Amino acid sequence: MIDRLTMLIRHDVRLQWRYGILAAYSVVIIMTGGLIWLLRDAMPGWFISLVIFTDNAPVGFFFLGGLLMLERAENVRDTLAVTPVSASEYLASKLLTFLALSLAAVTVVGIASGKSVNWPLFLVAATITAVFYLGLGTFVASRTKTVTGYITSSVIWFLPLLLPAGVAFLDPMPLWLAVLPTAAQLDLILAALDGENVSIARLLVLMLSAGGAAVAVYYIGVRSLRTDFGEKS
Fold first, then answer.
1. pLDDT tens-digit series, residues 20-34
2. Which residue among 47, 51, 99, 205 is least enclosed by CB atoms within 10 Å?
3. What is this structure's pTM?
4. Which secondary structure element, helix H or strand E, spans residue 170, and what is its range?
């Protein structure tokens, strides 16, 4: 399994390099970090957190559809389907490569912000958000045939999930609203970026909501790929 996953990661890195994803997002990271560094005294923490939540952490959601469409056009998944590679290994490779981009972006933004960042919580919150949206992106992409269709479907799915997260800007957000996974994700990012002390009870509730939803949606993404890969151990 480790050998197959390593092979898939190498393939994904080559593919992202070939189609300019790595180069394009590296420029985005540098520009975003530079802009936040220059305006850090004028930018409130909530705005920087919103940038992380809507752009940096879910980067895989934005690029994944195009990548899956390209691989479908090149019959990559048809080829992999007759190998021992499973849907979970295939998606794990995508997760690891896009997660690396997400964490690089949020790290640059966190440093550039000049805030007293709670780094362990910050990176965990970004990881949970990235996993959630990668699973969602996989689910959406498995049900569309074109990049245009993916973009259209993404708006339909992304906005209804994103908008309720706005309740996290309540100060403090009532803990019962943590039933909204995206609100829990954003609340964690807000707390981590400002270096807030979060009680163990509150942290546990937020983590259970955000993390549980991320695992569930990621599993749905894996299941949606099994029509191509079949059931493999």
1. 888 888 898 899 999
2. 47
3. 0.90
4. none
